[in-house]
Design a protein that fits this description.
The protein has 443 residues and is an all-alpha fold. Helices cover 81% and strands 0% of the residues. The chain has 19 helices and no strands. The longest helix has 39 residues. 56% of the residues are buried.
Length: 443
């Protein structure tokens, strides 16, 4: 094979991996967001009946947070297998774990049928979902990064990130379509189970795609016994814990704002402001569409500007947007809310498109899956995982959305400070340790 043929074959495989990462990530995030949407709209009544709807919402968001708590564990466990035995096989396992748990949620009887066992089973499935997703994100980003041309990492690295808004769109369209087709009462009673059960078909699609891709060439070379790390998590915790902490604080701001927009606003708008749930879902979908279509553009800009620079500019804009978000929602002005939700898509996409590659490049190749997964999932827990729960609790305690705005402002400023502390070497734009050739270990 000539060098030209080799480059052409490599580019083809890189595109194929990027598409597989996008589709697979979309399926897994569909599963994850489907639960989040149901937690905001249905689960408080079906699994946590209470005379006070606010208390039921706090309990439902508590199970949402449980999935985030298990995501760092999933990142460490699945990351170990991804660094030790291969990215591709671990991604297949994460897809099966996530999909089968989603189907199981659609089969759980409600509180009225089996009592306290219902929320216990729901929480257990959510925890296992979190383990699956904890391994999914890191594997998809790392595998795509390791196939991508070095001058197009931002563009290719945006592909698995695009699965987030795509999964959000698919989950909300499923809920919205079934609500309109069945009626709100029927959907809240039993129709909510259908989109969970449909995940069985999505598993088949995802499995087909993931079985067709190749392991990354960089990992295949690394997988020699002389250089392969026997216990990746030990090296991450002993030698790279500072990188884990820095990456966590970079991630936390984006995740916090995203889950106020994607999840909390559905509950807040419906229960507190009495805004039509269909309008809220359409607004979230509209914002997610903008998020999805703009991601490749931000990825390309990251390749030209530098990932850190793009993330910093987007971080400042995101903080300003977060300050205005809930005050705009509080106006109850639907056209204004809708336009503002669309703008959210552009703002979140600007930082979200680059954060995957930035995080992965902060770790050496031999522990990249474990390190990036652990860092991102801990950051997501501290950001998106607890934010809807904190927001619901703050609203109940203070009676004003300003307390929530101040909270996400503080988190956003922490994230900006962490990003400003990164150097070009930290994110792979200089001669970083993460990109140097691994040296064989002495035996």
């Amino acid at each position: 094979m000539t060098p030209t043929d080799s480059r052409t074959s490599g580019s083809h495989q890189a595109r194929r991996v990027a598409w597989a990462a996008f589709i697979g990530s979309t399926i897994e995030w569909y599963d994850f967001f489907l639960y989040a949407t149901a937690a905001a709209l249905v689960f408080n009544a079906q699994f946590f009946p209470s005379a006070d709807p606010a208390v039921g919402s706090i309990a439902a968001f508590g199970t949402l947070a449980a999935g985030f708590v298990s995501r760092p564990l999933g990142g460490l466990v699945m990351g170990h297998f991804g660094d030790r035995y291969g990215r591709k096989n671990t991604l297949i396992a994460s897809l099966l774990i996530m999909g089968l748990c989603t189907v199981a949620i659609g089969l759980i009887p409600t509180y009225s049928a089996i009592g306290v066992a219902a929320p216990i089973l729901l929480t257990l499935m959510r925890v296992i979902q979190g383990i699956g997703l904890g391994g999914e994100w890191g594997g998809a980003v790392v595998l795509t990064l390791e196939h991508a041309p070095k001058n197009r990492r931002g563009l290719y690295g945006a592909a698995p990130q695009m699965g987030v808004p795509a999964g959000l769109i698919a989950a909300n369209l499923a809920v919205l379509g079934l609500t309109r087709a069945l009626g709100e009462d029927a959907f809240n009673s039993w129709g909510w189970r259908i989109p969970f059960l449909l995940s069985l078909l999505l598993i088949a699609v995802g499995m087909y795609l993931r079985l067709s891709i190749e392991e990354s060439h960089a990992y295949s070379e690394l997988a020699e016994p002389a250089v392969r790390q026997k216990l990746p998590v030990a090296e991450v915790l002993q030698e790279h814990w500072r990188s884990v902490l820095r990456a966590c604080f970079v991630v936390v701001g984006n995740s916090s704002v995203a889950y106020v927009f994607m999840t909390y606003v559905l509950s807040y708008g419906k229960q507190t402001l009495h805004i039509d749930a269909t309008f809220l879902l359409l607004s979230v979908i509209g914002g997610a569409v903008m998020w999805l279509v703009s991601a490749p553009l931000w990825g390309q800009l990251g390749d030209r500007w530098g990932l850190r620079r793009l993330f910093l500019v987007g971080g400042y804009i995101r903080v300003a947007w977060a300050l205005a978000f809930l005050p705009v929602v509080d106006t109850g002005n639907k056209p204004l809310i809708f336009v503002f939700m669309l703008s959210m898509g552009l703002v979140l996409s600007m930082t979200h498109a680059s954060v995957g590659v930035m995080t992965a490049l902060m770790f050496p190749l031999k522990i990249r899956y474990t390190g990036s997964s652990a860092a991102y999932q801990i950051g997501s827990l501290l950001g998106g995982g607890i934010t809807p729960l904190v927001a619901a609790s703050l609203m109940k305690a203070t009676g004003t959305s300003m307390s929530i705005t101040l909270y996400i402002l503080a988190v956003g400023l922490i994230s900006l400070a962490a990003t400003k502390g990164l150097s070009r070497d930290d994110v792979g734009e200089g001669v970083s340790a993460a990109e140097r050739e691994p040296q064989p270990q002495k035996v």
